[in-house]
């Protein structure tokens, strides 16, 4: 079945409600509001990509809002640009293995948090209450990082055994 045919069978109002609901959850979790809406719209698109004009029309937002959201999503490595063949228009696309890649980036963040907290514990004095808190926080991030490596390996193993359609 072609993408246009599958899209035609969708309840567009239900899709719009899903996009806004998921975007709301992402916003509540700390993501930028417009970035969350654009991300959710891309996630809901069968092609996992849309042009700026398509995003603006779908979400009823300005081209400037789309541009700002795409800038944010590109910075956090959730979206990338592709030039449409034979056109001057860009398409904004979700990365393949989106969640794996996005959370893989979190591993680097955890490592940076751990390092700065360990440095902070030394600066604050490891025997002070503030230094002990910083050291405990560093240990927490080290623990998360160790556990996260196993989680990502299990996910990779699972998706290799059961590839998605």
Task: Explain this structure.
With 165 residues, the chain is mainly alpha-helical. The chain folds into two domains: 3-94, Winged helix-like DNA-binding domain superfamily/Winged helix DNA-binding domain (Arc Repressor Mutant, subunit A), CATH 1.10.10; 98-161. It has seven helices and three strands. Strands 1-3-2 form a three-stranded antiparallel β-sheet. Helix 3 (33-44) packs across helix 5 (63-75). The model is unreliable at 1-7 (pLDDT under 50).
CATH homologous superfamily (4th level) name of the largest domain: Winged helix-like DNA-binding domain superfamily/Winged helix DNA-binding domain
Number of domains: 2
Global mean pLDDT: 86
Give the helices and strands as they follow along the chain.
Answer: HHHEHHEEHH
Report the strand count: 3
Taken as a percent bin, the fraction of beta residues is 5-15%
Return the CATH topology of the largest domain. Answer: Arc Repressor Mutant, subunit A
Largest sheet geometry:
3 strands, antiparallel
Model regions low in confidence, pLDDT < 50 over at least 5 residues? 1-7
CATH architecture of the largest domain: Orthogonal Bundle
**Major β-sheet strand ordering:** 1-3-2
Tell me the structural class.
mainly alpha
Instruction: Indicate the radius of gyration in whole angstroms.
Output: 20 Å
* Broad CATH class of the largest domain: Mainly Alpha
Give helix % range.
over 70%
Approximate shape: elongated
| End-to-end C-alpha gap | 14 Å
| Separate helix tally | 7
């Amino acid at each position: 079945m072609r993408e246009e045919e599958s899209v035609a069978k969708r309840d567009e109002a239900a899709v719009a409600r899903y996009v806004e609901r998921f975007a709301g959850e992402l916003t509540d979790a700390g993501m930028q509001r417009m970035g969350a809406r654009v991300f959710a719209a891309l996630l809901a698109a069968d092609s996992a990509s849309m042009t700026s004009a398509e995003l603006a029309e779908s979400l009823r937002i300005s081209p400037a809002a789309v541009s700002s959201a795409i800038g944010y999503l590109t910075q956090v490595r959730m979206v990338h640009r592709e030039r449409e063949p034979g056109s001057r228009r860009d398409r904004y696309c979700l990365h393949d293995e989106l969640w794996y890649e996005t959370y893989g980036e979190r591993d680097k963040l955890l490592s940076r948090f751990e390092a700065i907290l360990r440095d902070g514990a030394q600066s604050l004095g490891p025997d002070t209450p503030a230094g002990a808190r910083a050291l405990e926080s560093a240990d927490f991030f080290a623990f998360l990082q160790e556990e996260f490596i196993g989680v990502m390996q299990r996910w990779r193993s699972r998706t290799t055994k059961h590839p998605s359609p």
